[in-house]
Amino acid sequence: MAVASARQRKGIGSALVGAGLEQCTALGFGAVVVLGHPTYSPRFGFIPSTRWNIHCEYEAPPEAFMAIELQKGYLAGRAGTIRYHPAFAEV
Ligand SMILES: CC(C)(COP(=O)(O)OP(=O)(O)OC[C@H]1O[C@@H](n2cnc3c(N)ncnc32)[C@H](O)[C@@H]1OP(=O)(O)O)[C@@H](O)C(=O)NCCC(=O)NCCS
């Protein structure tokens, strides 16, 4: 996710994250992960995924890989490595 620098700090990023999480909830997803900024993503409820022993397949600081449960308890007992769609490897 990115917001053009001239348009940042107007709530666009927050609106995009909020709408994305709403859509994921409506579609029935149980959780969402993000490789994000450790001081930005938590404002939406994301917490480091190490709490569930869930890790990212990419090299990343552990505090930057976060998850949020959309269904309470969904991640309990789901330890493992998150695999991204191959398209992400081309970015
Ligand atoms: C991160 C980003 C998408 C936020 O978009 P935005 O439209 O400016 O976000 P909002 O207006 O909803 O929120 C702005 C708040 O986020 C904070 N913020 C922005 N980037 C941040 C960062 N890298 N780390 C921590 N906080 C950040 C701002 O300081 C501001 O805080 P405030 O509400 O206390 O003033 C935007 O800065 C961006 O495009 N950055 C470059 C790309 C990027 O890093 N994407 C994220 C990859 S996960």
Properties at a glance:
two-stranded parallel ribbon; binds coenzyme A; globular; three-stranded antiparallel sheet; alpha+beta; 91 residues
Question: What is the averaged pLDDT score?
Answer: 96
| Share of β-strand residues | 15-25%
Give the overall shape, derived from the CA principal axes: globular
**Which structural class should the secondary elements be placed in?**
alpha+beta
Major β-sheet profile: 3 strands, antiparallel
H-E string: HEEEEE
Whole-angstrom Rg: 14 Å
Descriptive notes:
The chain contains 1 helix and 5 strands; from the N terminus they run αβββββ. With 91 residues, the chain is of the alpha+beta class. The strands form 2 sheets. Strands 1-4-2 form a 3-stranded antiparallel sheet, covered by helices on one side. A two-stranded parallel sheet has the order 3-5. The two termini are 12 Å apart. The mean pLDDT is 96. It binds coenzyme A. Coenzyme A is lined by residues 1-3, 8-14, 36-37, 39-40.
